[in-house]
Amino acid sequence: MLKLRCPYCKFMADETELVPGGEAHIKRPLNNCSDDEFSSYLFYRKNPRGVHFERWLHQYGCGKWFIAARCTQTMEVFGTYSAQTTKPPIEIIRKIKLKRPEWDNKTK
Ligand SMILES: [Zn+2]
């Protein structure tokens, strides 16, 4: 079972206490974008096999959204942080790079 530490209330929550919110750090395209760009923003997600940043809601806890960095293949969690950030914190990037030197950060 997946367990994530909520960065707000510091509680180690089971997956059953959380609600997944999908891929994190998705940037909304500008108003003058093409229909293809806008439909990609609305409907298409990366769903990688490996390191992934995803939104989670601590529904049966403090009720706040946060972001988890984890590996979808091994379920290893690299850390969690506030959903109010526009890109992953440097300490989480360092932790991922330490364990996965070949990993390429595509959230830049
Ligand atoms: Zn919480």
Q: What are the segments in which pLDDT stays under 50 over at least 5 consecutive residues? A: none
Order of helices and strands: EEEHEEEH
Strand content: 25-35%
Present as ligands are:
zinc ion
Domains (count):
1
User: What fraction, in percent, of the residue positions are helical?
Assistant: 10-25%
**In angstroms, what separates the terminal alpha carbons?**
30 Å
- For this structure, the CATH topology is Folate-binding fold
CATH homologous superfamily heading: Folate-binding superfamily
Could you state the oligomeric state of the chains shown? single chain
Q: Spatial order of the strands in the main sheet?
A: 3-4-5-6
Provide the CATH architecture: 2-Layer Sandwich
| Estimated structural class | alpha+beta
Give the overall form: globular
Number of continuous helical runs: 2
Rg calc:
15 Å
Largest sheet: 4 strands, antiparallel
CATH class: Alpha Beta
Mean pLDDT: 94
Structure description:
There is one protein chain. With 108 residues, this protein is an alpha+beta fold. It has one domain (3-99): Folate-binding fold, CATH 3.30.2270. It is 18% helix and 29% strand. The chain is built from 2 helices and 6 strands; from the N terminus they run βββαβββα. It has helices at 35-43, 90-99, and strands at residues 3-5, 12-14, 19-23, 51-57, 65-71, 77-82. Strands 3-4-5-6 form a 4-stranded antiparallel beta sheet, with helices on one face. A hairpin with a 7-residue loop joins β4 and β5. The mean pLDDT is 94. Bound molecules: zinc ion. Zinc ion binds at residues 6, 8-9, 11, 58, 61-62, 64.
